[in-house]
């Protein structure tokens, strides 16, 4: 194959592919992830934050003009399927409202129903937010929006749950959480909406997400119990309750991201929580990024609290760029993170090693059956240093030792491996002796 043809082939192969841990979409802002399993893939329908700009929405607030969809078969490699709905192509939406907030999507009888909130252009019919539906034959669209929003619904954050008997329910929020039955057509309410009143009464509640497991109905929602949102849940015997408060799924963001918004799925016999945080925009929490972590249950059906991780879920191929700054663990001292380029945070993070014996652990690296022969690290350093790649523990077998040159230019360095790891490995990058070294990624060959 000629060189140019090979380049085009590789570009085409990787176009629209995203490889990541947490957050798992890092080339744009995403929020409010509604994850769904359709067939053998997980589809995530987030909302799409964009930075505020003059003439685009309200300053210092959420600015959202469209929705995209992402999918994956392994929760590691994500495909961006592009824009599915845009504010100025929905007949009932005020075209310059930039208020395409948290959506949801469900499958029923051969069709995909995408529910989304926005501001109506006709304020004589409904003031503020209401909720509309768009319908498609495939999970990635094309989605055709209905000409009018769903009658009798005022609020945001739609969520649809279809029970085992086929009855569908729509939930949404407006200060409180509302619920109603949906008609068979999935486009109209079949009952009067009512407030699910047994949930905590003080503090904003929004973003409802209902699922069922072993006969228990879980009503999960972000709630401002203190100053910002945390994820809570309540349980009941019926999709519309009554629900009894049962606990916290995820505590408030340690760095103060005011919102959180989530969904829960079971994929290949493992439960997952999808949620968001403002990883790529630490100074402005209206530009968020979506994340996923494993979720598990106690014997009695209660949910174990999920501690957010950087490593996220899924395996990482040993032979791609392993972004070790999304680590599983680090030593108490000597490892710190920062953006590769603060002027372009979408370039991600780097890990800095700055004291003897500092270590960073990165779990679930998949070597498969291929015997790796060498390792490459992209490094920079003010004074130079020595790094080791080990397996199993910070004191485990040394797979490679690399001298990091003193150079402020990002430089790839390589070393032969002393062993030939196969299968799934937990790796450790350790610092030997004094010095300082910054690492963008590592990759095996
Ligand atoms: O993304 C805009 C709003 O922020 C969502 O609709 C809420 O749930 C909160 O995440």
Describe the structure in your own words.
With 445 residues, this protein is mostly beta strands. The protein folds into 2 domains: 21-295, 5 Propeller (Tachylectin-2, Chain A); 320-444, Galactose-binding domain-like (Jelly Rolls), CATH 2.60.120.260. The protein is built from 1 helix and 31 strands. The chain starts with a helix and ends with a strand. Residues 1-17 have low confidence and may be disordered. The structure holds beta-L-arabinofuranose. Beta-L-arabinofuranose (FUB) is lined by residues 31-32, 47, 62, 101-102, 156-157, 206-207, 259, 261.
Give a summary of the structure in a few sentences.
The chain has one helix at 3-14, and strands at residues 17-19, 31-38, 41-47, 66-72, 77-86, 104-108, 111-119, 129-136, 144-145, 156-162, 168-174, 176-182, 194-195, 209-213, 216-223, 230-236, 244-250, 263-267, 270-277, 289-295, 316-317, 329-330, 335-339, 349-353, 359-366, 374-381, 385-391, 398-404, 407-416, 424-432, 437-444.
Bound molecules: beta-L-arabinofuranose
* Quaternary structure type: single chain
In CATH, the architecture of the largest domain is 5 Propeller
- Superfamily (CATH H level) name of the largest domain: Glycosyl hydrolase domain, family 43
Shape: elongated
Beta-strand fraction estimate: 35-45%
Give unreliable regions as ranges.
Answer: 1-17
Tally of individual domains: 2
Classified by CATH, the class of the largest domain is Mainly Beta
Tally of separate helices? 1
- Distance between the ends: 22 Å
Level of helix content?
under 10%
What's the CATH topology name of the largest domain? Tachylectin-2, Chain A
Radius of gyration: 24 Å
Structural class: mainly beta
Number of strands: 31
Mean pLDDT: 94
The description of the largest β-sheet is: 6 strands, mixed
